[in-house]
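Hi there. Long-time user, first ticket. I'm pasting a complex I've been working with (about 788 residues overall). I'd like to know whether the download I got is complete or cut off, because the file seemed smaller than I expected. Thanks.
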Amino acid sequence: MDYLFSNRVKGLKPSAIREMFKFASDPSAISLSAGNPAPDAFPIQEIAKISERLLREKPIEVLQYGVTEGYAPLRRAVSNYLQEKHGIGRSFDGILITSGAQQVMDLATKSLVNEGDTILCEAPSFVGSLNTFRSYGAKLRGIPMEPDGMNLTALERALEEEKNVRFLYTIPNFQNPTGITMSLQKRRRLYKIAKTYHLLILEDNPYGALRFAGEDIPPIKSMDTDGLVIYAGTFSKVIAPGIRVGYCVAPQEIIQKMVVCKQGEDVHTNLWAQMVCYELLEHCDFGAHLQRLKSVYRRKAKVASDALDRYLAPRISYLPIQGGLFFWCTLPNGADMLSFCQEAVKRKVCVVSGNTFLTDETQPSSSFRINYTTPTDENLIKGIQILGGILPEK
Amino acid sequence: MDYLFSNRVKGLKPSAIREMFKFASDPSAISLSAGNPAPDAFPIQEIAKISERLLREKPIEVLQYGVTEGYAPLRRAVSNYLQEKHGIGRSFDGILITSGAQQVMDLATKSLVNEGDTILCEAPSFVGSLNTFRSYGAKLRGIPMEPDGMNLTALERALEEEKNVRFLYTIPNFQNPTGITMSLQKRRRLYKIAKTYHLLILEDNPYGALRFAGEDIPPIKSMDTDGLVIYAGTFSKVIAPGIRVGYCVAPQEIIQKMVVCKQGEDVHTNLWAQMVCYELLEHCDFGAHLQRLKSVYRRKAKVASDALDRYLAPRISYLPIQGGLFFWCTLPNGADMLSFCQEAVKRKVCVVSGNTFLTDETQPSSSFRINYTTPTDENLIKGIQILGGILPEK
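Hi, the file is complete. Here it is re-exported in full:
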């Protein structure tokens, strides 16, 4: 039987990272390729206690169908939290609980983008989101990254040149894969540009709470006086990813379309998980949990940067980080990044090659991404040491 | 700000049923409109015990990212179960765990259907699936229902007339909304027609295990020697819907495309829920649980049909059932179904009007759907009694 697939999926490939995830399940391999948060920071005891109580006191509520918009107490708690903590949410905004922030990308694209329309994104950017955009037949145009966020001159040029731009996708905090954080000044300029061009911004903030050094910078959504920003958040990095709970704050009109799309996609998000998130947010000391989590990440990032300094730098350079999950490493001029990554796999260390994150994967890249949060300290150091042995000494 | 939505979602409306679900949360209303399984049949104690053990023994596995295809032990357990119990699954088939069976409809449509392509479906059919098909810009053509399943002559006519038919959607057991089960003879003829026309069949079987009388009829997928059937199953009705776990068995090539789409949609299904389903299926007496569940449904269906006989029949006729969640009731000639349903809402009883389930909702229908599994016995009887009072006595 010859199957006819839809045009939108014909050219789609599985995410290189998700595929490596399978390779990484080989116990003798060292995976520095995942985007997994540190399991040492999962609030396991609290989740177990909450879960036991929910299934004892409100089992039917946990197990029966719920509304598509999400568990009402969680929606209120997240709204309040975002309002108080980040100044997010105005009278025209609504909130939707999603099955991970990935679903925000999906629902926003489904609601706003026709096949052939353009989505602007940082170059490089998170391949999971790029693949979602591709799966709706969107044309992608990359805006080059600079140390303080995307190049806004290049953004304006793209806005002049491209037709049917439906939104700009950005990860302003500890961007995936580069770890770069957009400066406050650039956020303000970006919002001004968005206003001028009636440009919607899809602001993806999975890592904002993982800042272990420096000062928080207000999200773009906090400046959104005009209903231009769709904000995506998630509990994957601050509670746990396996529970698949994210959320979206956006103008009510957009939320309504996303709700209809979600009805047809998975009806609603797993209720046990939503109720666990609610209890952690409202009835535990969530602030103390975040502090503990930050100290885990701070310590672990230090282990990684010490190893990077010792075994890789200066031949392989890397950007210092103040939060997030990744180090972005760049090979010296002339080195072949793809054969470097292949050699790493042969030596049973997995990193993600930089071209994976480009809008056109066939373009060259001299960088690769390292995740420092998933491996044990021992494997992290050993993995970086093995990477250091690949390049010949000068 | 004027938002531009994609063509595919412009005309989408929220599911009438999901919207009524909100109304039904008014505690003084009697909802006969949901598609909720009977909460008395949820295996609450078992889930609580399993959950406690999982979070104690394998917390990281429960809480960390998993693979998109689904929790491997669950995939194996479901494959074995379907093979042994229903003869489902051949060497060319693969299995994917989804966030409810609704996601199977979504992923199959996304993978197979271009905007403007045709999907054939039973008329009437489950509005949740119809809305998913609509959300990808599919054209719907309804095939009228008969007491033993869809009219196959009408199906052949449609196949001759329609261009770019991508698949046929059917719920062969205790169909939603009519409760009709397709006869074995028709299933065989349908498969033969599919072979002749190279027609894919999307077989949705949420209610098959809820048969409390009569004999099981083999699923169409069990006859699938040619890789024509995409089979959707779910734990929503046999365990609980709030956990959102379904599955799909289909030719590996189709599964692969669906996996890529799922990566972009929600990465993977909630792991706690997948592991709970696995433990219930493999390490509890799942057969005994199903027997208990059937006895709950058998008893409850008797309460409903007694009340229907007493208060509605013969003025309002209904189809007797041997399983599933619904009674399909039809008003006498000349009665106005929409004003009947509106009057019911005024009297605080919620049913779903028949036109909701049509490919063209503006077409007339003289029927409405009753769910008997969600309300208490008392409310079920009282609700039906109130419905009986709406039509004037002859």
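A couple of notes from our side: The mean pLDDT of chain B is 95. Residues 286-311 of chain B form the longest helix (26 residues).
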